[in-house]
Amino acid sequence: MLQILVILMLPFILLANEDRPPIPYDFLAKKEAQQFIRQMVKKHDFESSDLKRLLEDAKLDRDTLARYTGRYRKNTTVGSWQRFKAHVLDPDSLEKAEKFKKKYARILKKAEEEYHVDAEYIVGFIGVESKFGEYTGEYRLLDSLATLAFHKNRMQKFFRSELEHFFLMCREEGFDPCRLKGSFAGAMGVVQQIPSVYRKYGMDYNGDGKKDPWSAEDGIGIIARFMHKNGWKEDAQVAVRADYKGKRYKGLKTGYKTSYTLSKLRSFGITPKTHYRYTKARLIKLTDKASDELWLGAPNFRILIRYNPSSDYAMAIHKIAQHIRHTKGSDTFFQRIFD
Question: Residues 140, 108: one domain?
Answer without folding.
Answer: yes
